[in-house]
Specification:
It is a single chain. The protein is mainly alpha-helical. Helix content is about 60%, strand content about 10%. It contains seven helices and three strands. The protein has helices spanning about 15-30, 40-55, 60-70, 75-85, 125-135, 140-160, 165-175, and strands spanning about 35, 95-100, 110-115. The chain has a three-stranded antiparallel beta sheet. A hairpin with a 6-residue loop joins strand 2 (about 95-100) and strand 3. Helix 1 crosses helix 2 (about 40-55), helix 1 crosses helix 4 and helix 3 (about 60-70) crosses helix 4. It is globular, with a radius of gyration of 29 Å.
């Protein structure tokens, strides 16, 4: 019977399931996206989102709590150093599950789970990138101003020595 079943047990014992989710969470933090089955991705999302919420505040207590879930010093360091500053403004929804089709061997429904803020191709915050590009446009204008300054001495040199285009233009005028 399945009375009071609140989460997917993934056909594993409790210790196996906790080890599986811990290892998958470490891989997700390290690689920013992983491919797995849809059921495991949904279970991982429930497991990892509270961990990411704890990582937003860098305290010793939160580091120890996160380490008790992940059991990997490298993953905890990566989480608090690189991931936490990027997700600081976000109020949840740190992961995205994208279904990718069916596995060849057993036709299991596969999915890719990824951290939302680390996907450059499919990021809804594209406006922020445009703002930074606009601020960079000032540097090409400065480069153009430098180029104009460099062109003025070049024009003086051009008046002394006619170029091939100028020679063609004078020949056309003479021909008319």
């Amino acid at each position: 019977m399945r009375h009071g079943k609140k989460f997917n047990h993934l056909s594993r014992t409790a210790s196996h399931r906790s080890a599986l989710l811990s290892n998958m969470a470490c891989s997700l933090i390290e690689h920013k996206r992983i491919n797995t089955t849809v059921a495991k991705a949904k279970a991982l999302r429930v497991y990892v989102e509270p961990i990411l919420t704890k990582a937003k505040e860098d305290t010793t207590h939160n580091r120890r709590t996160v380490f008790s879930y992940l059991q990997s010093k490298e993953a905890v360091t990566e989480l608090f150093r690189t991931i936490a500053p990027k997700i600081a403004e976000r109020n949840g929804g740190y992961t995205r599950i994208i279904k990718t089709g069916f596995r060849q061997g057993d036709a299991a429904d596969m999915a890719m789970i990824e951290l939302v803020d680390f996907n450059e191709l499919y990021n809804p915050n594209a406006e922020e990138k445009k703002v930074t590009r606009r601020s960079r446009r000032a540097t090409p204008k400065a480069a153009e101003a430098v180029a104009e300054v460099k062109e003025t001495p070049a024009k003086e040199v051009k008046t002394e020595e006619p170029t091939a285009e100028a020679a063609d233009a004078t020949e056309e005028k003479a021909g008319e």
